[in-house]
Amino acid sequence: MLAELEVQPHPPFDFTQSLRFLAGFPATQKEQVIAPNRLIKGVRLSNITAVVDLESVGTTDRPRLVMKVQADTALTDHQLAQIEKRIRFSLSICEDLTEFYALARQDTPFQETVMPALHGYRQVKFPSPFEVAAWAVLAQRQPMAQARRMKQALVDRFSQPAVYEDRPFEAFPQADDFQPLDRHELASLLGNERRAAYLFEVIAAFLTVEDNFLLDAPYDEVKAWLLAIKGIGDWSATFVLARGLGRMQRALLEDPESTFNKGMLHAAVPVYGEVSFEELRAIAERYGIWQGYWAHFLKAYTEVMGQPRIER
User: Is residue 118 part of a domain?
Assistant: First the structure.
C-alpha cells in the first residue's frame, strides 16, 4: 500500500537543516536514506513497519513537504494519521518559533552568529519517547559503536523490515513489540546484563504510561516519573524530555560539573566567549520557556555546522 499526502510546516522551516543534523546523528545512522531535500526512513507503529518518504518541494519561508507512506499491509486511515503525526512531531514540523525568534533578536551575540546559520532549523527528535529512553540507557558511558550494536541487535530481533524501492528499511521496535519478554534473552542479546536490566525497566515503564501524560503533565511531574525508572538519571531524564517529548522548558542541569553543562559551556565560547556557569544560566533564563530551544540551537551551531553538508 502506498499513500501520499502533503505536509505544510510552520515557516520558517529549512528541511536541509534537519537532514544535515540526521546525517551526523549516531543514534539513527543506517536507519534512513538521506538525499538532497529527501529523507526515507522506517517507522514502527502498532506492530507494523512502514516506510516514510519525505521530500521538500517548497522553500524555507514557504515550506511544503510531500510525504509518501508505504507498508507491506494495508494501513487504516487511523494508522496513516498516526504515522503522519509521528513524523510531524519528530521533525518539529508544526512548531511555531515566533516567540523564540523574537527573544533571540534581543540577544545580540546569539542573533549575529547562531540565527543566520540556523534560520529555519528545527529540533529533530527521536521517532518516539520510548526509543530515546532506550537509547539513553544503551548509550550511557560507553562507546557509541557499542551502543549502536546493541540497538541494532534489538531491531534485528524485535522488529520486521519493510521494503521500499527494492531496499529493506528497519525501525526501532516499540515497547509492546517486546512482549512477552524474557529478561535473560534480553541480556544475552545485548551481551550486557546491567544494560539489559535497565532496558527491561524502561520497557515495563513505557508499557504502563499514556502519551498524554508524557506530553501534557507538568514538566517536573514527568521528570520525576522518568527518574523513578531504574537506569534513568538526571541527564537521561532531561534528554528524554527534550529529544523524545519536545519538552524544552529547561536548558541546564543543576550540577555545573556535569558532562552536559561542560558541553554547554564549550558550545557557548564561539558565541559568547568564555563565560561562567552562572553567566550562562543567566542568559538561559532570559529565554523563559524557550531556554531549551536556545540551548539546542547553541549546541547545534557548534556541532551541526561541522557535519556533512546536504545540498539543496
Answer: no
Query: Of 9, 145, 16, 136, nearest to 66 (Cα)?
Result: 9
Whether a cis peptide bond, with omega within 30° of 0, leads into 180 is yes
Of 176, 206, 164, which is closest to residue 69 (Cα–Cα)?
164
For the chain, what is the radius of gyration of the CA atoms?
19
Rounded Cα distance, 269 and 183, in Å: 45
The set of cell numbers assigned to 57 is 518541494
**Is there a domain that residue 61 lies in?**
yes
Q: Determine the residue type at 156.
A: D
Three-state DSSP state, 171: coil
Q: Is residue 117 part of a domain?
A: no
Grid coordinates representing 166? Answer: 527494492
Q: Report the alpha-carbon distance of residue 186 to residue 295 in Å, rounded.
A: 35
pLDDT reading at 53 higher than 70: yes
pTM score: 0.87
| Residue-range definition of the domain harbouring residue 144 | 129-243
Strand, helix or coil at 77? helix
- Asked if residues 12 and 119 have their Cβ atoms less than 8 Å apart, the reply is yes
Is there a contact between 139 and 149 (Cβ–Cβ < 8 Å)? no
Cβ(307)–Cβ(20) under 8 Å?
yes
What is the pLDDT, as a whole number, of residue 29? 74
* Residue tagged 525568534 (cell numbers): 101
Instruction: Return the CATH number at 239.
Output: 1.10.340.30
Cell digits for 84?
503522519
Going through 47-95 in order, the beta strands assigned E by DSSP cover 48-56, 65-71
Provide the pLDDT for residue 259.
79
What does the alpha-carbon distance between residue 104 and residue 110 come to, in Å, rounded to a whole number?
Answer: 7
Q: Are 50 and 71 in contact (CB under 8 A)?
A: yes
3-state secondary structure of 40: strand
Report the amino acid identity of residue 169: F
CA distance 267 to 295: 9
